UniProtKB/TrEMBL annotation, chain A:
The lineage of its organism: Bacteria, Bacillati, Actinomycetota, Actinomycetes, Micrococcales. GO terms for molecular function: peptide transmembrane transporter activity. This is Peptide ABC transporter permease. It comes from Promicromonospora citrea. Residues 100-457 form the Solute-binding protein family domain. Pfam families: SBP_bac_5.
Automatic annotation (TrEMBL), chain B:
It holds the Pfam family BPD_transp_1. The keyword Ribosomal protein does not apply. It comes from the Bacteria. It comes from Promicromonospora citrea. The chain crosses the membrane at residues 12-30, 106-125, 137-166, 178-198, 237-258, 278-297. Its main location: membrane. The keyword Cell membrane applies. This is Peptide ABC transporter permease. It is found in: Cell membrane. Belongs to the binding-protein-dependent transport system permease family. One of its GO terms (cellular component) is plasma membrane.
Length: 554, 315
């Protein structure tokens, strides 16, 4: 159903589209700074259509099946592509500045101790069922997440850790109360996980919510959802509360968005090039030429949060030796990873946070490729080169195993190259590929040397939830008096500059102890046809379609 | 005849029960926890509260002992309740009911195409007197078995969807979306049919009644259609029962390549997320399909060869 509705007229339209798209791609290249040549300048901007036009259906091919469409319960990127369009959040995080801006809440006050957050809601906002959006809806949603719904909404529940309740002053004023300082909460209110749904939705069974029994106030409304197959969204009539970061106010331009699940990347790219899709997700490096060759463009943005890292299990010798871990930091040539097995869309990691994360500090100097120094550190720690080139200490070879699930398809090739690089300094890195399910099991039992993963979050508090010994702590390390206190203190720091300083210290402290070996930043990579414009990324690098529009012929 | 059918149906019930039990044992013995897997997916890398995991395990009955869990599941299955999916919360029976018609269409068309193709190859090879043509035709089956369905699907897509837009690349809507996936599935099927049928026909040509028929003055085509085909196709009918079951397995690959909703996609997703209720429901349904098709194949034998019925009926 989804991709076929416009197929009948497709061949006739293709030549007209191609002409328009050649002009459009020139303009897009300027914006991406991907085309260094000067020939395209000027011509591209003039030839492109000046005004966004309402109407049309955008056919989007997702790389994987969404878990469901409930904004509060889903966590995977593809699920959020769909769910984000259906509901709005209290606040909006500006993707450029990282600052928290008004959305459903016009303003807010935060108590000095960061335990009470008072939001003043915008008036005149309605849900898609016509009812008014009030403080009761916000409270019902938070109460549910902190209660029963939290079991199947782990991401939202983690943002509301320490939730005591929501006090309602009037229809448009509410105060969220925590039992401890919670600096990350304000950013959390901008995420899809804490999006505001109608209070009736809070009472619906969680699995029915995932299947589509939700009412939101977003720029699109769910028309249908079929598990493993796709979803159809239609424009919400009367939508008039877009955040300031949106390019326009009022209703979305697109009439409809038809999401379909297309697991094969080659089929997505071929479908885009043959006008069976208007936009596709998860573009792989090998598919970029086909997309660009057909007049399309590939949009990318690095996911904020923790980039792809190897996290050492400190209970597993020789990773209990900090020198071994420090040597690993210097033995990886991150530029080579990106240049040889990934693509222009990806950036080498330059710290324990991705560059798009507010509070990120560039520590590329500490992660510079220096195999000689890595070898010297290992030698000084007693690891001497053995007969086969692998270092040995007390008769034990320097062997490590990385456990990874190839959820991101480039992971295997990246890790193979890392293994080659480490071998050059005398470390034998073995790859243990597992399914996502097996990785969860390995994680729970602590059965890994190095754990390979990334996490998306546009707030530096992600460092605490990943590295604090009271939290996920994949290093399985003991509590300390350097890293842990820094991670806890930033959560209670009201002053933005002071919090940033603590976060910067925490990033250094994690590198001092080499608790993570950063590799590269994950990027969202979206292919769009030449006649599709203004598909945008939010601060968490998930897609927004409110501003998106398709050139209409005639 | 009635006793024979009854006996076979009884056997079928036994097979279904065994499929249910063995799949339960395998899934139960796996070290991983489907609830933790599901939550980890939704958590997007954030830490999952162990108390939440325990709460959900209780909700799904995973906190009970293995025997009690088994009996609960079996009891529910007997009343037709296959439970709900752990990862999506949707009823398993509904998921399968949505998927099965799609796959039935796909497998049905693939079966028709595969039978037609396989019969044409074997029949032509059997009928022709030109040795070069026969040799050429008999090269096709091994080739058809050797090329992976995945590759066939991608080549078909590239030619007939991306290069010349004849058929849509993805989706479930309409007959046009069914053609390429069905052809992909039919390639392997027709290869097996052609191979087995050609072998059966070759042997049937050597039977004495063929000489009798020729002696009576029948032409080559008439002998093939009236005598050789009927006897030579018996092994094919037997194999066909198994092939139909194998088609279900083939849909895992084909439905993924062509982004179709159906049984194969459901299997793939349920296995990767270790969604025990869904996997068990699928195993039971697949076993039922296997049992039914091989029963039908056996029942078809007497229609082709009356000797089969008398032999069995006399027992």
């Amino acid at each position: 159903m989804y991709p076929t509705s416009r197929q009948q007229d497709a061949p006739l339209r293709r030549s007209a589209r191609r002409a328009a798209s050649i002009a459009a791609v020139l303009g897009a290249c300027l914006a991406l700074a991907g085309c260094a040549g000067t020939a395209a300048q000027g011509a591209g901007q003039e030839a492109g259509p000046a005004e966004p036009a309402p109407g049309g259906t955008l056919r989007f091919a997702l790389g994987a099946a969404p878990q469901g469409v409930d904004p509060q319960q889903v966590g995977t990127n593809v699920s959020i592509y769909v769910a984000r369009q259906l509901a709005d959040s209290l606040t909006d995080q500006d993707p450029v500045t990282g600052r928290i801006e008004p959305w459903l809440a016009e303003s807010w006050d935060i108590s000095d101790d960061l335990t009470r957050f008072t939001f003043h809601l915008r008036e005149g906002v309605t849900f898609s069922d016509g009812s008014d959006l009030t403080a009761d809806d916000v409270k019902a949603g938070f109460d549910a997440i902190a209660g029963d719904l939290g079991a199947t909404a782990p991401l939202a529940a983690s943002y509301l850790a320490g939730y005591e309740g929501t006090e309602i002053a009037d229809d448009h004023t509410l105060t969220v109360v925590f039992d401890a300082p919670n600096a990350q909460f304000l950013q959390a209110t901008s995420t899809v996980s804490l999006a505001v749904l109608a209070q009736e939705t809070a009472a619906v069974d969680p699995s029915e919510r995932l299947q589509g029994e939700i009412v939101g106030s977003g720029p699109f409304v769910l028309e249908s959802y079929t598990q493993d197959q796709g979803a159809v969204l239609t424009r919400r009539a009367g939508y008039d509360w877009a955040p300031a970061s949106a390019a326009h106010d009022g209703e979305a331009y697109l009439d409809r968005i038809e999401f379909s699940v297309v697991p094969e990347s080659g089929v997505r790219a071929g479908g885009l090039a043959s006008d069976q899709f208007d936009a596709v997700g998860d573009v792989l490096p090998q598919d970029v030429p086909q997309i660009e060759g057909s007049g399309g463009t590939v949009l990318t943005r690095a996911n904020p949060g923790v980039p792809f890292i190897l996290q050492p299990n400190l209970t597993r010798p020789p990773l209990d030796d900090a020198d071994v871990r420090r040597a690993l930091l210097l033995a990886v040539d991150r530029t080579e990873l990106v240049d040889t097995v990934l693509s222009d869309a990806f950036e080498p990691a330059t710290g324990v946070l991705a560059s798009t994360t507010p509070g990120y500090v560039d520590r590329s100097d500490r992660l510079a490729f220096d195999p000689d120094e890595a070898g010297r550190i290992l030698g000084a720690a007693g690891w001497t080169p053995g007969a086969d080139g692998i270092r040995v200490k007390d008769g034990e070879p320097l062997e490590l195993e990385v456990t990874y699930a190839p959820v991101f398809t480039g992971s295997g090739p990246v890790l193979e190259l890392v293994a080659q690089q480490l071998r050059a300094v005398g470390v034998d890195l073995r790859l243990r590929q597992v399914t996502a399910a097996e990785q969860t099991t390995a994680q729970q039992s602590g059965d890994y040397d190095l754990y390979y993963y990334n996490v998306t979050r546009a707030d530096a508090d992600i460092l605490r939830t990943q590295f604090s010994t009271a939290q996920r702590n994949l290093s399985l390390r003991e509590a300390d008096d350097v890293v842990d206190p820094l991670l806890e203190e930033q959560l209670g720091e009201r002053d933005a500059d002071a919090r940033a300083a603590l976060v910067a210290d925490a990033q250094d402290a994690i590198l001092d102890d080499a608790l993570a070996v950063p590799l590269f930043e994950l990027s969202q990579s979206i292919g769009v046809r030449g006649d599709v414009h203004d598909v945008t990324f939010d601060a968490s690098s998930r897609l927004l379609f409110h501003d998106a529009w398709i050139e209409q012929e005639g | 005849m009635a006793a024979y059918v009854l006996r076979r149906v009884g056997g079928a019930v036994g097979v279904l029960w065994a499929a249910f039990t063995v799949s339960y044992l395998i899934l139960y013995l796996l070290p991983s926890d489907p609830v933790a897997i599901m939550l980890d997916q939704g958590a997007g890398g954030e830490r999952v509260d162990p108390a939440r995991v325990a709460e959900l395990r209780e909700r799904y009955g995973f906190d009970q002992g293995p025997v009690q869990q088994y009996l609960t599941l079996l009891g529910r299955a007997l009343t037709g309740d296959l439970g709900t999916s752990i990862s999506s919360g949707a009823p398993v029976a509904g998921l399968i009911a949505d998927a099965l018609p799609q796959t039935a269409q796909l497998a049905g068309l693939a079966l028709v195409l595969g039978l037609a193709g396989g019969t044409a190859i074997a029949g032509l090879a059997s009928w022709t007197r030109a040795a070069w043509l026969r040799d050429l035709l008999l090269l096709l089956p091994p080739l058809g078995v050797a090329v992976p369905g995945f590759w066939v699907g991608l080549v078909l897509l590239h030619l007939f969807s991306f290069t010349w837009f004849v058929f849509p690349a993805v989706g479930n809507e309409g007959f046009s979306a069914l053609v390429l996936p069905a052809v992909t599935l039919a390639v392997g099927l027709s290869a097996v049919v052609a191979q087995v049928l050609a072998q059966g026909l070759r042997e049937a040509w050597r039977a004495p009644y063929v000489e009798v028929a020729f002696a009576k003055g029948a032409g080559r085509g008439r002998v093939l259609a009236a005598h050789v085909a009927r006897n030579g196709s018996l092994p094919t009918v037997t194999v066909l029962g198994v092939l139909v079951g194998n088609l279900l397995g083939g849909t895992v690959v084909v439905e993924t390549v062509f982004s179709r909703q159906g049984f194969g996609r459901l299997v793939e997703n349920a296995v990767t997320t270790q969604d025990i209720p869904v996997v068990q429901g699928l195993v039971v349904v697949a076993a039922a399909v296997f049992v039914t098709t091989s029963l039908l194949a056996d029942l078809a034998h007497p229609l082709l060869d009356p000797r089969v019925t008398t032999a069995r009926g006399a027992r």
